[in-house]
Each structure stands twice: as C-alpha cells, then as structure tokens.
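Hi there. Long-time user, first ticket. I'm pasting a complex I've been working with (about 457 residues overall). I'd like to know whether the download I got is complete or cut off, because the file seemed smaller than I expected. Thanks.
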Amino acid sequence: MKPAPFAYVRPQGLQHALEALAADPGAKVLAGGQSLVPLLSMRLAAPSTLVDINALPDLDGIRVDDTGIHVGALARHADVLASADVRRVQPLVTLALSHVAHATIRNRGTTVGSIVHADAAAEMPMVLALLGGSVTVASTSGTRTIPASGLFAGPLESTLRHDEIALEAFFPGLGAGEGVGFEEVARRHGDYALVGAGAVVRVEGEAVVAAEVGFLSASDVPVVVDVTDPLGGVVSTSSTDRAGELALQHLDPAEDLHATAAYRRQLVRVLTTRVLGAAYDDALGRARGEA
Amino acid sequence: MSEELVDIRLTVNDVVHALRVPARRLLSDALRHDLGLTGTHVGCEHGVCGACTVLVDGRPMRSCLMFAVSAVDTEITTVEGLAEDDGSPEGRLGPVQQAFVECHGLQCGFCTPGFLTTITAGLKHNPEPTEDEAREMIAGNLCRCTGYANIVRSVLRAAEIASERP
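Hi, the file is complete. Here it is re-exported in full:
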C-alpha cells in the first residue's frame, strides 16, 4: 500500500508546470489527490513524474458572472459547496456537491480534478455534462476549451492530452423558468452511489417545455438524456415512467458486488421520477419567487 | 538507482521540522516514521477509514491521501496537538478528548485519533450540533468496535465542555 517511486516537481508558475508535464509522457498532475493517491498506493497507476500544482498562484478562485460559475483548478469541493454565489447562480452544483464523498475528502479534493478524473460514478462529471458546461485546459502550445459533451471518453478517461492541465471548469447558471433536482442511492451517505441522477426542468406557466436527466453509475460515462418528449409537457407518474424507460435505452448499468444490473435499472426508474418531480417543483417554486 | 530525496520543512503542532524524504512518502508515514508522532494511526491507507485524519490549516484531511512534500506551506495539527495549555507542564485534555473519557467514547482506541481531530474541527465549524449533525460530523470515520453511540454522545458532551471553558 505504498506508491511506486516517482520524480516530483512543485512548480511555482504555470509555464514551468506545463513544461514539466510536456517533458515526460508518463507524468501526471497532482491537485487534491483524493482519487489519484489511492490509485498510486494500490499501484493501479505508477506515473514516472508527479507535477504538483498546489503551489500555482491564482487557480483557487470561484467566480460567478451573468453566464455561470467559473471554478479554478485548485478550488476545493468544500469551498465551492460553501459558496453562496454558487448556490444562487447554479443550485444544482451545490446540491450535487453535498453528495461528493465525506467532508474530510471535500476539504482536499478539487472540483476540477474530480471532473477530469472522469469517473462515471462521480457526481461532478455528470453535473458538468447535464448543464452543458466546459473545461478550459492549457499546454505549452496554448489553451483550449473542451465542452462537456466531448470530455468523457470512457471509464476514468477524459479527452485531455497527457501534456494538458485543466485550469477551470465552467458551469452554466440556472436559466429563466428552470428548476433542478439531484438524488442518489448509496449504501451510506458519502459512499459511491449505486445510481445517481440529476434533472433540469424548464417550465412556462405550469407546462414543462424542456427537461433533461443526467445519470451517474449507470453507464461507463456520465449520460444525459433529453426527456422532454416522453413527459409531454407534464410531470406525472405515467409521464416520468415513460421518461425512465427512455433513459434506460441510453444506459447500460453494470452488475457488481454492491448491486445487480436489474436493481440499478430499477433505481434509474425510481430516481428519474424523483428528480424530475423535485426539479419541476423547484422550477414552479422559483417562478413564484420562493427559492 | 537510489531514490531521489527531497528536503522539506513541515510545521506540526506549532513545531517546524526539517526532514529529508522520498517524494512518495505519505504524510501519515512522515508523521509516524520520520517524526515519531505515532498518535496518527493508519488503517486502510486509501482514504476510507479516517483513522489517519489530521488538521491541515485547521481543516480535517486524510494524511494517507497527501504526500509529505505537498504539505509544505501548511500548519498541521495531529492528535498530539489537541491538548490545551492550562499553565501546567503537560496541559490538559482538549474538550473532545475530555468528552471521550467521560462518555466512554473509545473501546480499542485505534480509530480515536481520527475521530478526535475530525470532531475538534467540526465543533469549531458548528459549536452546537444536534444529534443528527453530530452523526453527520463523524460519518467519514469508521470504528470497527462499532462504538458509535458513545462517540455521538462524546460529540455532544464535547460541545458542552467547550462552551463552559473560557
């Protein structure tokens, strides 16, 4: 249970960090390390170099503007969760973060790191996908912005190149008429979810005009399904059942020690109903000025 | 080829230590092996059990999920640093430690250092927890003796003790 040896660099500036990463194809970035260090200790990963970005300046910011939330690479989950600005601009981020591991892990782990770790069982990659957010990455050859729809390539695999560092994640803010919901089923609070789901519902008056549901732990990447059609403008037992059945056509829940595939499929149905109901109520409540 | 060593300074319980460690040295191992602070216990070594929890700049973190080289520029508090100064040479037990004594909050004691550090920080954040909040506060720590009921009582008692002390 000890990591294999690696070369270690702790750059004080971004350019130095990018050069160190580019210099070794076997290098990995260390931010919070709450997912990476267990992989190293169990020797599931053995990078030849670790580029520790914790000393880089100006990367721990959480900034909101008219369009949404910009989360810097060194912003810890706990700080994003505690931000009143974040809760106001995009409450789904706050809702989901309260389910990310335990408080102790959230104190060290970073939201951006969790996203580019690309674990299909993690909350924040799914939330980024559901909201249609993006990640800005840098390398020695420049910066680029990767939309969430092009970010998740497979289990624990993002489309970042080995020489790129994720600098910032962008979560679009809540739009007019929108409400959100998030729920997951786990053996214990803070454990990995057996299945989790989030929803964004947009209403005009009392009618649903758009609805999407995102799922974690129900496929090998985060999956977002547009369920506007099966809802048919309303949130009812039968309409959310239809949404759940449509979602299952896009999902491939696996069987493991903790749950059978059939149980996970049932959780998809149940959670689809719950999060759509919660998001619909949230949208109506906000329209009435309650939230 | 011998492994490269890194010279670092770690501030632990208000004392600055200079040490030379391989980059892969976990903070938990640096505390125990290099500094002899064996109060920090190591259970699962992958962040699940919480026994190795220490305070980094006052916030609970898993010392088994940090490298010692990455903990420079921080102030670390271990269970050895939880006693309070009362003018005596040894000091007195901190409120959480005292509450564990009074409420039988430990059985075998292996998990206790992680609970003590976690609860000490938790009560700073929320000085008057409800029983539900006390449970939530310790949800990330495992006790294999399963003595959780008395640990929850200890959290509530520690809040009382802390409020009574000046």
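A couple of notes from our side: The CA atoms of residues 102 and 154 of chain B lie 8 Å apart. Chain B touches chain A at residues 3-4, 6, 22-24, 26, 29, 45-47, 50, 53, 56, 59-62, 64-67, 69-70, 73, 118, 122, 136-137, 139-140 (CB under 8 Å).
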